[in-house]
Fold these 2 entries.
Entry 1:
Amino acid sequence: MSEIDKFVRLFAVPEFVVPHLSLFLSEREMILVARLNGEKCSVSKIVLRMNSNFEDVQDLLDACYNKHLVHREEVDGDYIYYGADFYELLDYICKFDENYHLIDKDLRRTLDKWCYRVYRERMDSYLGSLLEGETVDRAPETFLMIEDLDQVLESVKDIRLVPCNCRKLASHCVKPTETCLSFNDSITDRTFGRSLSKEEAGELVRAAHKKGLMHQVNSDWRTKGPTYICNCCSCCCYPLRLAQEKGTKGVFPIIQFMVQRDDAKCSHCGACAKRCNFRAFYIGEAGTVVKGKNRRKVELDLNKCWGCGICKEACPTKAISMTQIIAIG
């Protein structure tokens, strides 16, 4: 078995990617992972296996660690390294490699399908535990109302902006991609992105809101502090795609609010229908007359509402409000 073949096996590279490996990493990076051989190794051991000097190997390890080709742990004051996998590498590349968008569209489409499938498989156990009411290691998402944004931002110290991996991979819409915020202890030495002030973060989320993006936050943010805000669309967002596929609305994500409409105020302009990610609002077949003008009625199917709240500000007549149905924390 060649070292490249060994790398493909150890790094869990999907078969369709093998002819395109040079788009994602160098031969030397592949050889490093192959020579780690699925083991946890010290730098001195890796120096021997790479038949190189310490400085060159350390530089290679640092670059590969940043790129999510390898992971590391601190043991007795020293680092030991071990291989990651292609799924983790792809997450880094789609967000931070400026040439990712130049990859052939068909290949990127296949990468998205593959990545979503792996994500779905890795979420099976977590979703199963949530559905069974078992204790999980992290709280599921919930939708954040835009009026609660300032409270979230006031409770955090450090804010980091990173690209949305879901929209970078899926590209099902043209909504902004520089939209994901990490906070405080969730920011690591491999979060990258750029730091924002609270004012900058607030402006970014409100701009995303105007673009029709929903806001998700960890559901225990009031008691344990916020760890992230993701500004999401239902067509690209992996968690929302999975929730729609698996029918986990209410558990993953947790639904705290439900829309209400004052029919007497509704002008049936259709602004809410254009904003709704889940087709809870839609243009019906029946007609109506508003201020002497014939219009088709905008219907509301409450069963399809996910309580994200982005329809509320879109309504010019203030006919829409959000009612809390469950309190968390």
Entry 2:
Amino acid sequence: MRRVFWVGVGVAITVVIVVKGRQVVARYAPASLVDQATDQVNSLGEKATGFARTFREEFRVARDAREAELLASLLAEGQPHPDDVRAARAARRDRAGEPGVDDDEDLLGYSFY
């Protein structure tokens, strides 16, 4: 309980310092200086957002490429793609209109496809 109290005290002190610091800066700093600092912080935020977006996109592309490489290395010669097998099984079940053999895989907790 003491730790929670001291963490709360630390958070409260931090909030007070930030608020009072902003008030002091607003009172004594020239408006042009504050505007320049605000513009720089905003541009830095835009750059960080752009970097994160680019990183996420490049990571997704690399991940998908690696997944395709691993899948290709695991499939035997002439073996169909697992997505094709799943689609064919689903189509057979839909045509039959009744549950298939694959419906018990949810109960068993494992799958071979």
